[in-house]
User: Fold this.
Amino acid sequence: MRIVVTGSSGRIGKYVVRELVSAKHEVLGIDVLPTPAEVGRGMCVDLTDAGQVYGALGGFRAEAVIHMGAWANPGHVPDTRTYADNVQGTYNVFQACADLGIERVVSASSAQVYGFHEHAPDYVRVDESHPLKPINCYALSKIAGESAAEYFSRNSGTTILSFRFQGVRLPSEMDEQIGQMARDPAGGRRLFWTRTDARDAAMACRLAVEVYRVDSGIYNITGSRIVLDTPVTELVRAHFGVDVEIREQDDWKSPMSCEHAREAFGYDPQYPWTVKDRFPE
Assistant:
């Protein structure tokens, strides 16, 4: 399959490209930054310029797009630009796919749309129907992207999967992340004491473009289990309060449910990270 990956020079985008190439797909990475040698075939493209997006996707004759390109958090540039660039770039990608007949798109959203950095969840495990409480311009831009995905899916027939990624980290970052969480469990609440290996995030993207048939919509993507060795219910009660409704929560599974992704395209994280594995007594 001929697949374009936007944001291919980014931390996670590199893993997506690597995963696709390993699966024998033909990949073009596009990014506003020069493409690193390890990414392979690349092209400098500004996603906020519709003409450049059309030229890259059409010239490559793409059959699918994995859209990872964006300002990855607030603070890299002024908030107005974070929001404007992310929304414009996503719209341009979707419009180009619709016009060029590219029928499968995976688009990176974020679990930040739920607002758990500042707000307690209404219930756990959190599924995709949980209320949204965005707390910054980045999360707002991702909600706009999800809305655009629904619009294009409905009006053009493009299959677009919006992935609400949570806590994606590189393998080289995990020991530091786990150690910090073990020292400060309260700080771990913002990402539900869970980390997602970038290799699992990349695998989810590959599975979603390879599966023969899948529904457009929103999919949580996170690690399979919590990092700490304290049961989830205890952590939720201690750090979010007693008002959170507990719904079928396993002691060790992440409080964010990925059942929708598992049922739709077989997402099953292969790289669980825990305190016991990394820092045995």
